[in-house]
Structure formats: structure tokens, C-alpha cells
Amino acid sequence: MIGVSVPESGPIHKKAVRYTKSQMDHQVVTVVSDPQVGATDDGHLQAYVYIGNFMFNTDLVRIGYARIPDSDFSKHQEFMTKQQQAKQRNYGRWNTTTTTA
Fold first, then answer.
1. Host H or E run for residue 57
2. Ranges assigned E (strand) in the chain
């Protein structure tokens, strides 16, 4: 997904995968490319994923399960706004509080 970098392992990775499956399960999605973004180094298409009119990529950033990678894409500013909101609210990967048992 364009504009989304999820950890490759760990609790945030697991939450992101679980959340994505719950949102995508039995949904019709629209995949939209960006003329500023090519395929990954291993040839995978990168795209914006929409469920109806809702862009799912920004949701992963908004809830803190993903950060914005260092790359250029046309909707970068929209993603930056979502990431700033996640940071300000200490969501997901931006949660700096720890709990002790």
C-alpha cells in the first residue's frame, strides 16, 4: 500500500494484520495507482486501497499501526496530517506509555 510502512514483526505488526483482515474481509475494494509511485524493488504494485469512498491506507496511519515511509507520493500531505494526529493522540506505534503488571 502506498504511504504505509508497518513493522515486519511484533505487536503492532500483528494488530495491523488483524485489523486489515477485519476491514477487508468480504469487501469489494478499489485499487488505485499513483503516477508518482512505481513498483517495489521486488516488482509488487503499490496502490491506494479504497473500501467504497474510504481510503484504507490512511486509516492504518491514523490509528498508528503504520508510519509514512520516506518516499514521494501524490497524497503525502494527507498522510502527514493523519500521522501527526496519531502521534498527538499516542496511538499505536506512537504510544510511549508503558504499563507494568
1. helix 56-62
2. 29-32, 48-51, 54-55
